[in-house]
Every structure is written in structure tokens, then in C-alpha cells.
Design goal:
This protein is an alpha/beta fold and 367 residues long. It has 17 helices and twelve strands. It starts with 11 loop residues before the first helix and ends in a 7-residue tail after the last helix.
Length: 367
């Protein structure tokens, strides 16, 4: 039976109809992983886990860019801010992530020049206004933000802005999804694919994963009806014994993605092995600056020959949360010594982190 039909109503009537169809699922058990931090928050906010039929689980994956960034990268940023004397520009969530010896916010309270920016172009403008200072952007994010950093670097080269550089920790989401499927400790039956990154990648980017591993994939948006439709599309595939890449977010995501953004990525970055918190090193999962952009590469300019160990906080189980091995409440620190006010791990810090989402919406999500 195909329990997923085109829907006519809108608003609350549409939501209630989608929930009814969700509860009508009678297919095999399946674990669905969302690999987007915004989906993590949306699912927790709407109490989606409590709506799932028996045998269907929703797992949070490595969709939070701050969360998957290893500790030693934050140690590098701390060194730049404290020892190299640069203006360290960063996005807001990264300020509170604990490094081995403190956070960027703590360094700022002790006199380091750490500034929150909203885009890579803001950081470039900061460098242009402070031509006597070095400005380093801590480059975090997946294919959503990496093209904006590429555009800023292209402009910096074009305009000859020499006091601007990037400490790149950008990640590619597709290799991480494959690594999870190859992990014998993680059982994933379907992927709810990220809406934001897919605007750049395109929905067809997930087709090789669906075909190679026999795992249904569906791109979804972030409103409650978007998430529900995405989950329903996946369950329909599971019930039919199919595995393909679908797009339930066509108003924002095309099949081929954003060609201009893809071109900017290719001009500025090259794909390299990269380490992820929880997943280890994954081939081809990092975006590193090409040699032609060495003058704007903070790692080459300021960190050559310096080793950073990066120690995880004792007792923190962020790594297992990011792999879908455990739910946040299963960590012994959750809501005890680790809270949004006093975070121990990155998953509690970020607005897109699974632990933070579970903490804020504990009354709506099971666990």
C-alpha cells in the first residue's frame, strides 16, 4: 500500500493529515538519520520522535559543523587569537566551544581580539578597515558556507587584500555519510538529507549513495510539514523495498544544485582527508585552500611546524552522539554538568547541536 498521497489541505489540517499517514506506516523497522543541524532542531522542537510509528527511529548525525570540528582546530584558533595577535573573526557558535585550554570567548575576556561576524565578506571588510592588523577567519561549515568563503577569498585576491586569511575547517557532507554507512556500529536505514547544503550540491548528489548502499535518501526543508513529508517519502521507499534519491524541497533545491557556488568551491578549495569529531579521518572530506591561495591560508602563514594535540573533555560523549550511537540523554554529563549555560562538549554549545536541541525541547522529544 502506498500510504503517501498528494495532499490538498494546508496549515494544521495538512500537519494532522501527515501525522496520520506517518502513523499508518506498517513497513519494516528502520533507523532514519538526519545529517543537518537545522533538521535536528526542527525534529526536537516539533516532538517528531514521539510521533514515529513502532520500529521507526530518528537518529541525529554529524550535521552540526561546529560539533564535528575536532578540538585541536579550536586550539589553533586560540593560538592565533592569543599568541599570534591577530583579529580572529568567527561565527557566533564557535566562540563558546571548549578547546583544550579554554574557549575563544574566554580568550576574548582576557584581552584577545575575537570578533563575531555573520559572513565571510564581513570578515573581509573587517580586514579592509584594519589594514594595519592581520584578520583571520575561522572557516567552519559544510557546502552551505564554504562557497561564501571561497567568494571572499576570490575578492581578496582580486583586490589585493593581504592582511586577510582563512583557517579552513570546512567539511564535505557526502563522504561523512558514506563513512557512517561503513561503520559496523551504526545501522542506518535511510537519510533525511540536508536542505541547505543541497542547495549547492543538488539533490542528485545523493543518488550514488542510495544506489551503492541501497539506502533511501530524501532532501527535505525545515518547516514541520517539510520534515514530515521528507520522513514519509523515506518510509514509502522502505515499505516498497526501494532506494533512490528524492527531493521533497524543490522550491529551494534543484537536481543539479548551484553551479556558480560549485565553481567557486572548485577554484579556491581542493578536497583533502580531514578529521571529524567522532568519525575520525575521512578521505576527501575536507576543503583545503589550493596552493594558489597560500598567501591567504592562515595555517601556512601562522601555524607551520606547530603541533596541537586537542584533548576531548573527560566524560563527554559528543563523538558517539554525532555517529548516532547514543541519544544525548545517554551521556552521563547531559543536563548535569553539561548544560547550554555551562557546556562541556560542542554538541551542547551549538544552536544546531543535538545535545542543545534535546536539552531545550526535552518536554517534546522522547529522551
Amino acid at each position: 500500500m502506498n500510504f503517501l498521497r498528494d495532499s490538498g489541505p494546508s496549515g494544521p489540517e495538512l500537519i494532522s493529515g501527515l501525522v496520520a499517514r506517518l502513523r499508518a506506516y506498517r513497513g519494516p523497522p528502520v533507523a532514519i538519520m538526519e545529517v543537518c543541524g537545522t533538521h535536528t532542531v526542527a525534529a526536537a522542537r516539533m516532538g517528531l520522535r514521539s510521533l514515529l510509528p513502532d520500529g521507526v527511529r530518528l537518529l541525529s548525525g554529524p550535521g552540526c559543523p561546529v560539533c564535528v570540528t575536532p578540538v585541536d582546530l579550536f586550539d589553533q584558533a586560540l593560538y592565533l587569537a592569543q599568541e599570534a595577535g591577530v583579529i580572529l573573526a568567527t561565527y557566533g557558535d564557535a566562540v563558546r566551544v571548549p578547546g583544550t585550554h579554554g574557549s575563544l570567548g574566554g580568550a576574548r575576556s582576557q584581552g584577545a581580539d575575537v570578533r563575531v561576524v555573520y559572513s565571510a565578506l564581513d570578515a573581509l571588510a573587517l580586514a579592509e578597515r584594519n589594514s594595519d592588523r592581520e584578520v583571520v577567519l575561522l572557516g567552519l561549515g559544510f557546502e552551505t558556507t564554504a562557497p561564501t568563503v571561497a567568494s571572499a577569498l576570490l575578492r581578496a585576491r582580486q583586490d589585493g587584500v593581504k592582511n586577510f586569511s582563512v583557517l579552513s575547517a570546512h567539511k564535505a557532507i557526502l563522504p561523512a555519510m558514506e563513512a557512517l554507512l561503513q561503520d559496523p556500529e551504526v545501522r542506518i536505514g535511510a537519510f533525511l538529507c540536508p536542505g541547505h547544503a543541497s542547495m549547492v550540491l543538488g539533490a542528485k548528489a545523493y543518488a550514488p549513495i542510495a544506489e551503492r548502499y541501497g539506502v533511501p535518501c530524501c532532501v527535505a526543508g525545515f518547516e514541520p510539514e517539510d520534515v514530515l513529508v521528507g520522513v514519509l517519502r523515506l518510509l514509502d521507499q522502505v515499505q516498497r523495498g526501494e532506494a533512490r534519491a528524492e527531493n521533497a524541497y524543490p522550491r529551494a533545491v534543484s537536481a543539479a544544485g548551484n553551479r556558480a557556488a560549485q565553481e567557486a568551491l572548485g577554484r579556491v578549495f581542493r578536497r583533502v582527508p580531514a578529521r571529524w569529531r567522532g568519525l575520525g579521518e575521512i578521505d576527501g572530506s575536507g576543503y583545503d585552500l589550493r596552493p594558489g591561495f597560500a598567501p591567504w591560508d592562515a595555517r601556512k602563514r601562522f601555524l607551520q611546524g606547530i603541533r596541537f594535540e586537542g584533548w576531548e573533555p573527560p566524560g563527554c560523549r559528543c563523538a558517539e552522539v554525532l555517529r548516532g550511537r547514543i541519544e544525548p540523554p545517554e551521556c552521563p554529563l547531559f543536563a548535569r554538568t553539561c548544560t547550554p549555560q555551562q557546556p562541556v562538549g560542542a554538541c551542547m554549545v551549538s544552536s544546531e547541536g543535538a545535545c542543545g536541541a534535546h536539552y531545550r525541547y526535552r518536554g517534546r522529544a522522547d529522551g
